[in-house]
Write a structure and sequence with these properties.
Layout lengths: L1 E3 L11 H10 L9 E6 L5 E6 L11 E5 L9 H12 L3 E5 L21 H13 L5 E6 L1 H13 L7 E5 L5 H7 L5 H22 L16 H12 L5 H8 L12 E6 L20 E6 L17 H11 L4 H5 L7
Parallel strand pairs: 1-9, 4-5, 4-6, 6-7, 7-8, 8-9
Antiparallel strand pairs: 2-3, 3-5
């Protein structure tokens, strides 16, 4: 089912680039006293996790697992906003950094990509195993939202998740990569490409024994070039196009078997209309919520501290999946 979003910002906040930049730069204080954990993995690598303060101190609320976008972390504004809003509403929040995104390079040649679901699956299964009687939800942003949909399609009904939300996922990655080479979107591409190259070079310096290839000058401003030279070969793909084909989440939508909301904006500067699926492609319990405005992971409706509509909407979407008695006692988040 496809429905229109109720997001309606004032006219001066309807520019997609303003929405995108505000979404990335919105000032949010660090989530109070996050509980940090490093998990050593069987493959000699590690994952850095973070949890809300009440996660293991007697809290009984539903658990929400959060997965960030490209080059994101607990320092990302949208992640801080989600932590604050969900914690205030009585949820317990669990966050997983994708490999190499916590401020320290991971130890193996491969790290993460838009279709990497192995670590996500491990994290979700761990949460479910440690809290078998607690409803478990998941939220993924952008790249993490794409990976979340892919995971849901791969798992079908065999997932411990109660519900999921995917925010601005690049459902057809090749379309998004091409869009980023046009117009003002090239500025976002250049910024993110610099961060990707910087992370790669830090890793090359830290672990010379991995013999990682350098990022060539051709990769200095293009996702396609970076994915061709680095992402694809380091993660077992034949080429960037092969990576895009296998990792794109749109093809996994029909196999989703739990309630899923996909939240997108038509004016997202990272996307084209060709990315948006048809209603026939969606599973029975999947809702595509489309807004005319919002940019890429923006959805800001005022400049007040409570101005991130996205955070309020995420609380509503997850709360809908609670039991009626749980929903009745939900703490209200300021509008």
């Amino acid at each position: 089912m496809i429905i229109p979003s109720e997001f309606s910002p004032p006219s001066w906040l309807r520019n997609p680039h303003l929405q995108t930049i505000l979404g990335a730069r919105w000032h949010m204080p660090p989530a109070a006293a996050m509980i940090r954990e490093r998990v050593e993995l069987d493959d000699s690598d590690f994952l850095d996790l973070a949890f809300s303060p009440t996660f293991d101190t007697g809290g009984t609320g539903d658990i929400v697992a959060i997965f960030h976008g490209l080059a994101g972390s607990t320092d990302s504004s949208y992640i801080r906003g989600a932590f604050h809003a969900l914690d205030a509403a009585g949820f317990r929040v669990a966050f997983m950094h994708f490999r190499g995104c916590s401020g320290e390079p991971n130890r193996l040649a491969h790290s993460y990509h838009a279709g990497a679901t192995e670590d996500m699956r491990w994290f979700i299964d761990r949460l479910a195993g440690e809290h078998p009687d607690t409803p478990l939800h998941a939220i993924g942003y952008s790249l993490g939202g794409n990976a979340l949909i892919k995971y849901l399609g791969e798992q079908g009904a065999d997932t411990p998740l109660t519900s999921a939300v995917s925010v601005c996922p690049p459902l057809v990655i090749a379309e998004g990569a091409a869009r980023m080479n046009r117009g003002l979107a090239r500025g976002y591409q250049a910024y993110l490409a610099r961060r990707m190259r910087a992370q790669h070079e830090i890793k090359r310096t830290r672990y010379p024994e991995l013999e990682l290839p350098p990022a060539t000058p051709q990769a200095h401003g293009s996702f396609l070039a970076i994915d061709e030279q680095l992402t694809a070969p380091l993660h077992g793909f034949d080429s960037a196009r092969d990576y895009y084909t296998q990792a794109s989440a749109r093809q996994f939508l029909p196999q989703v078997r739990i309630p899923l909301t996909v939240l997108c904006a038509r004016d997202d500067p990272f996307f084209t209309p060709a990315i948006i699926p048809t209603a026939e492609e969606l599973a029975p319990d999947t809702v595509l919520e489309l807004s005319d405005y919002g940019g890429h992971v923006g959805f800001i409706d005022s400049l007040s501290l409570e101005g991130r509509w996205l955070d309020r909407r995420l609380v509503e979407l997850v709360a809908k999946q609670r039991l009626p008695e749980q929903f009745a006692t939900l703490k209200r988040v300021s509008p």
